[in-house]
Amino acid sequence: MTDGAVVESARGQTRARIIRVAADLLAQGGRQAVTTRSVAAGAGVQAPTIYRLFGDKDGLLDAVAEHGFQSYLDEKVIRPTGVDPVDDLRAGWDLHIGFGLANPALYALMYGDPRPPAASPANAQAFRVLRAHVRRVAEVGRLRVGEEHAVNLVHASGCGTVLTLLAMPEEHRDPALSELAREAVIAAITTDAPTLQAPGPVGAAAALRAVVDETENLTVAERGVLKEWLDRITAG
After folding, report:
1. Exposed e or buried b for every residue in 169-199, given b needs 16+ CB within 10 A?
2. CA quadruple 109, 48, 46, 19: dihedral positive or negative?
3. Quick one: which H or E segment has residue 153?
């Protein structure tokens, strides 16, 4: 191993140790417990090391959120897709709710601040998982609204459900609330049968929009125009 590789390996180990310490502090005491001083003491490093590796405290918190959510994805969410993509969407909802209730401080870190998904690597990854679920529903012609509308509705409803449940004393949480919210959202965005079997342009547009990038006999520019038209149709 070259000297450069040794340095890089040591840097990676230090970074991982800092993230683990910060994650433990977050779980135990919430966001306010994750101070530069407490993390540096727990990880056995000087404060400048944290700034050098993460830029600032927000960079460290983003790394903690990404690590925590990625660990959850590796253990729970990445699973073989089922026959029914709507059932997979239900399962994804349940996993999201379970993740939030099991990791309240981490969830608040990811979703408590109204930031665009791209501003947080963990949030961006969560959106990619959700978009994949919605895309499969669209591909089989069972989406009654545009993909972006569906993604945003599921996301908003799921986050609202988790934050509402977290605000309740644990012993007073209504276990039926998540299921009722989930089924209301699914009823709003999906159909019982493929929309291609029913009249109306929206379902057909949503299904075509889901697979338009697979069309090889159109140029990139033509696909872009077609996407714009299809988005306008599904937007109503």
Report:
1. eeeeeeeeebeebbeebbeebbbeeebeeee
2. positive
3. helix 147-167
Classify residue 169 as left (phi > 0), alpha (psi -120 to 50) or beta: beta
Give me the CATH topology for the region 64-234: Tetracycline Repressor; domain 2 (1.10.357)
Report how far residue 83's alpha carbon sits from residue 73's, in angstroms, rounded to the nearest whole number. Answer: 21
Cβ atoms of 209 and 234 closer than 8 Å: yes
**Architecture category of domain 1-55 in CATH:** Orthogonal Bundle (1.10)
Listed by start position, the domains of the chain span: 1-55, 64-234
Q: What is the pTM (predicted TM-score) of this model? A: 0.72
| C-alpha span between 109 and 59 (Å, rounded) | 12
Nearest to 149 by CA among 188, 194, 111, 200: 188
CA distances from 125 to 109, 111, 180, 204, 214 (A): 14, 13, 26, 28, 23
| pLDDT tens-digit series, residues 102-142 | 999 988 888 877 766 566 777 788 888 899 999 999 888 89
